[in-house]
Amino acid sequence: MPKHGLSVEEKRKRLLQLLFEKKDFFQLKELEKMAPKEKGITTQSVKDVLQSLVDDAMVDTDRIGTSNYFWALPSKAATAKRNKLARAKESLQTYRKKRTTLDDTIAKMSTGRENSEKRKELLSELAGQQEKHATLRKELQAYHDCDPAVLQEKADMSDMLKDASNRWTDNVFSVKSWCKNKQFDIPEDLDYLS
What span, in angstroms and rounded, lies between the C-alpha atoms of 8 and 164? Predict the structure, then answer.
């Protein structure tokens, strides 16, 4: 069975552990030599793993002259973990307060909604009224075509369409007149809509 390499998370832990153990400042080249020997991290991955630790503020870096130095002190890591724990506790406290508030709201809203015979009767009556309301809405929709506003709208539309038709008839008469002058046969009974 082929041996699999370390996961990225395992490499991060091992490189951070190396820095904690040494409690010193290192250049990248030094870490690329030490990490494979002492922690089993491949030379090619040291730079990327180190950069990910720097990005997550778990390893400090500083440029001195033309060289970059890296270090991680256990005290800083402990402080970071304490800060993270404090934020988590604060967040937990906030969520507990929200839950308490929601529980209180539920309790207040539930008051008077206990499953009693009176409540069951009222809910049944409400359901019946809602059903009746839906039936009446459907019936009202059936009479929609008799609504005076709808009828007026249809009459207005009819007038508008009649005017448009007569405009086109005028246009046809104009063309007919022109065509008569040009000797075309157009029926004499062509007329306006009334």
Answer: 77
